[in-house]
Amino acid sequence: MRNIYSSFFWDNSFKKIVFFVVAQMFLSCTGFTQSFFVKGFNEGYKKGYCYEKVNCIAPNPPIAPVPKIGESNDNYQDGYSRGFKTGIDESKDIAAKDGYKTSHAETIDYMSRPSDMQQKIASNAERNFNTGINRAQELYEEGKYADCINLCKIISNMTKLVSYKYYKLISMSYEKLGDWKQSERYSKEGQKFLQRNP
Fold first, then answer.
1. Which of 24, 49, 113, 166 could form a disulfide with 87 if both were Cys (CB 3.0 to 4.6 A apart)?
2. Which fold does the domain 116-196 belong to in CATH?
3. What is the pLDDT of residues 136-166, one digit of tens each?
């Protein structure tokens, strides 16, 4: 009979141990999962923190509080409501403390304040213009017609000066490049310039 009792005891002990291990595993798994209240609190906090803000990135929510009396640990809406209120309150506290800070830009009016380079060019405009036009003449003679046109336009833009030679060089360069329309246009401009400035 002793064998029967010992095997019975052994079987019950083994069953108890297995039951105890399974129960511990189940309880440990459920202990680490979030309740509906906590999930609601986390979501509500993020929504409350960013309430009525554009392009807001909510910080990580704080640890959810224990539900108050009347709130349920299994109720998502209770957690959401608490989280939303907490998020709004913390957002207001931070905004009141820091405020919105924007950079202060200094406006620069380039039209009224010319650069140093522009001032140097303007002070020697006529000399610079003549030097540029003479270099453009050299480019024309070297057969670099597009470069001649570009240099003439650049030097005129920088110095705000023109001359008959300016129009003539551009007109002849366009003619060499086969652009008759532009050639004629600058030729006419040159003639007008001569009429205004005899």
1. 49
2. 1.25.40
3. 999 999 998 988 898 888 888 877 888 888 8
